[in-house]
Amino acid sequence: MLNEWIKWVKSNFFNRTGRLREEAFEIKRHNVNIEKEPYFVAQAMFTDIPEILEVERTVYDGQTPWDRAAFANELRRKFDRLYLVVRKNDQLIAFIGSSFDDRTKRAHITNVAVEPSFQHRGIGAFLIEAIIKKAHHAQYKTVTLEVRKSNLNAQALYLKIGFEKTGIKERYYFGDHEDAIDMSLNLQKWRGGYDGDR
């Protein structure tokens, strides 16, 4: 009897974060309006990887910082990784990746990219806030990310959403060894930063 009660307590109280995260990861493929333009949002699948790599190439001057194997490894981790893609007229134009750590209650945005001809339309902000909302639903404490020191536009967006600069990782990026700025969002203070049309 006591063992059954202990099991019930563990499953109903100690695993609450895990259950909330699982709920947050339940993504339905759906249409959204971002700044009054219609798009289609879905959880990334293995079949999306070639198009994700193509978005990377257009954003990073022909380079792919993450290769096919890296994305495949991430997408296999259904328990603690969440990747979303945005399509316009069936073309994949943006994606975001994130990791979720139930132990630390921290979500980390691993990568986000928007095809250059679709930038400055609120799509990046929409994706970042989607991950923030998922972490908030799971009752996480923080969302973190790194951004290139030279990427002032991205830094301005993250600050507008509510992130704060928390440190520098020197020579962080592969290839050119540019420094990265660590940024963090306290979810207990977050009230929603981007006010675009959903």
Automatic annotation (TrEMBL):
PROSITE patterns with a match to the protein in the record: GNAT
Signal peptide: none
Coiled coil (residue ranges): none
A family per Pfam: Acetyltransf_1
MF annotations from Gene Ontology: N-acetyltransferase activity
Domain N-acetyltransferase: 39-188
InterPro entries associated with the record: AcTrfase_RimI/Ard1 (IPR006464), Acyl_CoA_acyltransferase (IPR016181), GNAT_dom (IPR000182), MshD_Acetyltransferase (IPR050276)
Superkingdom in the source lineage: Bacteria
Name by which UniProt lists this protein: Ribosomal-protein-alanine acetyltransferase
Species name: Pediococcus claussenii (strain ATCC BAA-344 / DSM 14800 / JCM 18046 / KCTC 3811 / LMG 21948 / P06)
This protein's encoding gene: rimI
